[in-house]
Design brief:
This protein is of the alpha/beta class and 133 residues long. 32% of the residues lie in helices and 15% in strands. It has a domain of 90 residues: 2-Layer Sandwich (Nucleotidyltransferase, domain 5).
């Protein structure tokens, strides 16, 4: 006699490896995200009680007290800053730009990069400040 019973295969998805991978990815992003917001040390000007502090997904451009331009910690010329921002806009048309100008920076240096970005077609350009205490 033949055994007519078929063995049933247990089919299922094991969630344990997927949860392990997602936990590791979460830990990696939690550790690396604060490191991505590094920039140069600036003394931002006071601007009352409703200051613009910046967006998490904006390009951060800095102007130090000597009038040097930075994207992150990379020192660039004014024209290179604008070229880099235009290149980044190709990936994200709704890109926001936040300019951090040291309070001792030359007003003309800050306005020069802001005007150049406006001329390049950027609509969302803001200035970062700190709140009065």
């Amino acid at each position: 006699m033949r055994n007519n019973r078929r063995r049933g295969n247990i089919v299922g998805i094991s969630l344990t490896p997927m949860i392990d991978v997602m936990t590791v990815l979460l830990a990696v992003f939690m550790v690396t995200t604060p490191m991505m917001t590094n920039g140069i040390d600036l003394e931002l000007p006071n601007a009352g009680h409703s200051a613009m502090t910046g967006h998490d997904h904006a390009i951060q451009i800095s102007v130090d007290a000597s009038g040097n331009y930075y994207v992150g910690e990379m020192r660039l010329t004014r024209d290179d800053v604008i070229k880099r921002a235009v290149a980044m806009r190709g990936e994200n048309p709704d890109l926001t730009i936040m300019i951090s100008g040291d309070r001792r920076a030359d007003y003309g240096a800050v306005m020069s990069v802001m005007g150049g970005l406006k001329d390049a077609g950027f609509q969302k350009v803001g200035l970062r400040t700190k709140l009065d205490k």
